[in-house]
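User: Could you check the structure of this?
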Amino acid sequence: MAINNETEFKKELGLLDGTMLVVGSMIGSGIFIVSADIARQVGSVGWLLLIWLISGIITMIAAVSYGELSAMFPKAGGQYVYLKEAYNELVAFLYGWSFFSVIQTGTIAAVGVAFSKFTAYIFLIVSDENILFESGNFKLNAAQILSVVTVVFLSYLNTRGVKNSKLLQTILTIIKIVSISGLIIFGFLLGAKAEVWNMNWANAWSPRSFDLSTASWLPIRGVALLSGISAAMVGTLFSSDSWTGVTFIAGEIKNPKRNVGLSMFLGTLIVTIIYVLINVMYVSVLSLDELATAKSDRIAVVAAQYILGNIGTLIIAIMIMISTFACNNGLILAGARVYYTMAKDGLFFKKAAVLNHAGVPAWALWAQCIWASALCFTGKYGDLLDFVIIIVLVFYILTIFGIFILRKKKPELERPYKAFAYPVLPAIYVFVASAVSISLLFTKFSTCGWGVLIMLLGIPVYYLIKREK
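Assistant: Sure, the predicted structure tokens are below.
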């Protein structure tokens, strides 16, 4: 018999599970790819590492700020619930609408594409160059098919219950952390070269951009530098995203008032340390030219070649396949809980509010699966990143600003945990994220603009739903 009461979510996830979900969902493919694009955008070791460090710090600021909200509203739905409480149902719906149409499904698609990208390094038959069907501008390739297969498989696994998916998530994330740590350690011990390190740091703060057509560096400053930094931060912020997934499954977390916020803090701290260290390793092994021109941007593969030879490239490809697989499992697990909560409010398909015999929202999982699979056919990894990140930032800004609103609007609510260094740190996040968002709209409007348009289309949809109700 179907279970359709939120209180019957099974609380089977502890602090370790929550932390592994955060780490596993954050570390996907970005850290192994996007530093190549950052190197092309800013052309200096100092700026590259600073951009990763800034992204990590503002992500941790957001995480410790969310701790207040997660302790106040420890139930399924996470960010959707926080927005509804701070603002109104319309803002919450726009988040849920964007979450389903762009944010979560677009991220799942991007990570699925990245999984195929590295699988193709071992099995060429699943490469995006293996075109299976072509009609006009549309091309269907083997990599897209593999992306869809992984999304469907993980969605099926999650319909079987949270216990199986949490076990897979924890095991794969631990493997991921150990293998990345091994790559960093062996990189410093076996691959680091003093001459490469010294050369990279010789002009560490002289920004340049790399012209792929002429394979040459051009100095940049002023507006061009700001544009380069904004473009570079798309990759770092996307790679540091998805830490909120644990808030969506708060209904299945033991002692959620404590463990949800703590999982976010520990998870983002672990990931920030890993990201900064692996980039320090990259610049001790590879020159900036090698970073900027890595084939298919697979800089981790190039670094592994230097460190361990041919066997290293095979190891790193397998490691990244595990990483992206675990990442998508966490995204799929967490995302469906938002649609469940929306359906409870009458703002999503009614069937999404029904839990199956395993105590999970199976219908919502399959709806998410179908749309994410469709997005796998829409574009390349970089396009999907631009498409997603602008909307992610907009709702992070709104949610953290919601802390200020709720302090005035509902001062009587119990706050087991309060945002660290309030109001300074939350205000810093709002300012930095707003600056990045505005810059992205100016510099990448052709892709980011579509994301904003889809979000705004949710306004008439909301009023149509309300009228039907």
